[in-house]
Amino acid sequence: MKRKLLAASSVACLMLSGAAFAADMTVGFSQIGSESGWRAAETTVTQQQAKERGIDLKFADAQQKQENQIKAVRGFIAQGVDAILIAPVVATGWDDVLAEAKEAEIPVVLLDRQIDAPEDLYLTAVTSDQVYEGKVAGEWLVKDIGDKACKVVELQGTTGSSPAINRKKGFEEAIAGHANISIARSQTGDFTRTKGKEVMESFIKAENGGKDICAVYAHNDDMAVGAIQAIKEAGLKPGTDIKVVSIDAVPDIFLAMAEGEANATVELTPNMAGPAFDVLEKFKADGTVPPKWIQTESKLFTQADDPKGVYESKKDLGY
Amino acid sequence: MKKFRQLRPQLLALAVVLVMVGLISPGFFSVTVQNGRLYGSLIDVGVRVAPVALLAIGMTLVIATKGIDLSVGAVMAITGAVAATLVADGHSVPVVLAVSLALGLLCGIWNGVLVAFLDIQPIIATLILMVAGRGIAQLITGGVILTFNDPAFSFIGSGAVLGIPMPILIWLAMGLAVGLLVRRSALGLLIEAVGINRRASMLVGVRARFLILATYAISGLCAAMAGMIVTADIHGADANNAGLWLELDAILAVVIGGTSLAGGRFSITASLIGALIIQALNTGILMSGWPPEFNLIVKAVVIVTILTLQSPAVADELTMLRDFLRRKGAQK
Which of A285, B181, B284, B292 measures 20 to 30 Å from A61, CA to CA? Predict the structure, then answer.
């Protein structure tokens, strides 16, 4: 009985102190810069999340340069912020500045990307699991196709980039053991619409005018949008003649889904800051140390998930 | 006939590349009519080469004056972004075309003024716009891929007249127009004179500054056309990626075409064949089904081979070898 009471009171304390901390917490956020639409959406969502929680967010745009990020982090330390979020532009070279933050007892949370530094220098990293993203896409196709024979063509991301390697791996894991599904062709579309369209055009010509292709798997939505145009111009129906599954969940793919031209996408959520703020609030309240890696949800969207509505909710995030 | 002989190395290289691609992927040469337009891999080569072909036209003239234009890729991004913004705002196609072309011309004139009148070295002068241009384009689009849905403008990228896709018609027409302009007048000769020796040509009364400015202006105009084609093609302006690194492909096309980076003699036809060689390779690699890790290696090996065979040193050796064999044959 006594123990229960204690637990209840400590929970109440935690909630109280959590709320108190959130109200006057100042967080510095060093963003990479504006390299893509997703990045812009991440910035927007981070600002929204901070506003909802009453967190004072100090934002620094690094314009794709690590030296700017290091400067920004040093600035945050000098200002005595309560926590620092970093979306690291590269993986190496963080040890010194993170040690300075540690000395000043300011917890650091990494967003979206991991780094090569001793784990004790940062609180945690919030990222998606790219292999899992590929797996979710592959599992959708396995379920959707059933027992039919299916030749898949794959539009890879930039050759050698980690999302390209991991999303390919995850998809292959998902279709392994399903002999009816095979990857007939795989080429890089450099994550862009133009290249996605050009590569899809050549796939269609190489595979009997596209009649032999049952689905296209693109490592991002932009290439899928390009592929959809190539399929249409070849006189086929994207979404029915050739299924389209991709990753990222940018607004434009939902327009295509609403038209029935795309079938499924796996979300790379721009809300990396939400989970980061959650753990920071807990850490500040009672020192709860989170695990070193927090995986974000990789949600699957299909035509059944009200694509029009999702588009409306996403279109103003700055994608 | 003399012209044809000059183009022989480039035509030979194109033929060899096409035959190689044809061997790797049968069906490469089959052209059919689908939905009232020509359809096939060979047509794809003609369509996909359009941006580089257009850039190569302007680049040939610039290089002939001993200059270089690194900004064309960024100019493509700027004009694409402006065109997409205007189309999305509901402006009519003639307005969009006029504004975008004028903007390309303006970018070219900016480069031309820096090079011809302020005497800044071309590689640095055009680097300024190359670096700043993509930022300008991002400012215009607000950092997003600006999409639009306007069949009239998209026609430039994916439409067809008499079954021939628009991009093919555009680069052919532009090549013909600029080619006639410089070769049916003395302009071409004057450009070559400026490229070989600017000071000497100025002393004999050639208005070198104006000519150099004009070549950069034409280069900007070509980049504007290329920018509109890629924008119309994907129904959107991608400021981050439109025209990215295409300036290098254009320079490569000019070099494969045999125009020297040291200025002087040039051939627009040869540069266009150079662009076709590059694109035939690209399409061939895509059709081959090889893993993407090989793309750049294959491209590099083929291009090094072509350039080696074209190099004066190797050509001399080959001539000497031929003469030697002939003499030996005569002795017998």
Answer: A285
The residues with which A265 forms a beta bridge, in sequence order, are A246, A301
The distance from CA B264 to its chain's CA centroid, rounded to whole angstroms, is 18
Q: Where are the domains of chain A?
A: 2-127+270-288, 130-268+304-311
Q: What are A208-266's pLDDT values in tens digits? A: 889 999 999 999 999 999 999 999 999 999 999 999 999 999 999 999 999 999 999 99
Q: How confident is the model at residue B332, as a pLDDT? A: 62
- The candidate with the shortest Cα–Cα distance to A278, out of A33, A52, A40, A119, is A52
Rounded percentage of chain B residues whose pLDDT exceeds 90: 77
Band of residue B2 on the pLDDT scale cut at 50, 70, 90: low
Strands (E), B182-252: 236-237
What are the C-alpha distances in Å from B164 to residues A228, B212, B241?
22, 34, 27
CB A30 within 8 Å of CB A87: yes
Of A40, A186, A194, which is closest to B144 when you measure between CB atoms? A40
User: What are phi and psi for residue A250, nearest 5 degrees?
Assistant: -85, 155
Minimum CA–CA partner of A194 in chain B: B234
Number of H helices, E strands in chain A: 11, 12
- State the Cα–Cα distance between residues A146 and A243, nearest whole angstrom: 13
CB contact under 8 A, B27 and A192: no
A211 and A279 Cβ atoms separated by less than 8 Å: no
Q: Is B233 close to A187, i.e. CB distance below 8 A?
A: no
Average pLDDT, chain A: 90
CATH code of the domain occupying B9-289: 1.10.3470
Closest CA to A159 of B41, B298, B146, B226: B298
Q: Measured between beta carbons, which residues in chain A are less than 8 angstroms from residue B234?
A: 193-194, 197, 225-226, 229
Q: Mean pLDDT, to the nearest integer, of A85-90?
A: 92
Residue B122 sits at the vertex; the CA angle it makes with B208 and B275, to the nearest 5 degrees, is 95
Give the CATH superfamily of A2-127+270-288: Response regulator (3.40.50.2300)
Using CA atoms, how far apart are residues B66 and B55, in angstroms rounded to an integer? 17
Bridge partners, A247 (sequence order): A266
